Amino acid sequence: MKRIALILAAVTALAIPTAASAEAEAMNAVPVLGSKQFSEPYGAGFGHPEPEVIFNGGDPSGEVSEIHWRSWGGPIAIGFGRNPIFRPQGGYYRKLGRVELRANQLGMCAGKPAYKRLEIRAPKRPGAKLGQWVLWSGAKTICEAPR
Question: What residues does 55 pair with on adjacent strands?
Fold first, then answer.
């Protein structure tokens, strides 16, 4: 009888996930880029893994398309894509510029493993050398709606 009770206790312990095991399982899942809340209601790509397009819902410079990611799931994911570039005299250049994205600060956003920070390097004009890294939309986190 004691033996059956021990076996039942062991099976029950294996069947009930603990909070720690659920969190560990979530952290092993493929991370997403921030949270959908960051770009609601008109944005795209945020809250999804390896998005091919991101858009923060504002003007055209807030969109990067044709994104190809490297090292997604690692501590830093690097992406290359195309982005409208402002012209000094106003408006945008006709040709899209090649930009580099850097997603980092892996953690949890809206209950999912996610990159919590996004940075971008863009040229001053299409075809020019990439500039300095800056925070995407000036946001310290892409886990919540900007304030």
Answer: 44, 63
Structure confidence at residue 27 as a pLDDT band (50, 70, 90): low
CA 24 to chain CA centroid, nearest Å: 19
Residue 106, strand partner residues = 115
Beta bridge partners, 114, equal 32, 107
Tens of pLDDT, residue by residue over 89-100, are 999 999 999 999
Two tokens, residue 69: 């990611």
Query: What does the block give as tokens for 19?
Result: 């909070």
Q: Of 74, 71, 65, 143, nearest to 97 (Cα)? A: 65
Beta-carbon contacts of residue 115 (< 8 Å; ≥ 6 apart): 31, 32, 33, 34, 77, 103, 104, 105, 106, 142
DSSP state of 38: G
- The upper half-sphere exposure of residue 51, i.e. CA atoms within 13 Å in the direction of its Cβ, equals 24
**Of 103, 109, 116, which Cα lies nearest the Cα of 142?**
116
3-state SS assignment for residue 112? strand
Which amino acid makes up residue 96? L
Interacting residues of 140 by C-beta distance below 8 A, sequence separation 6+: 117
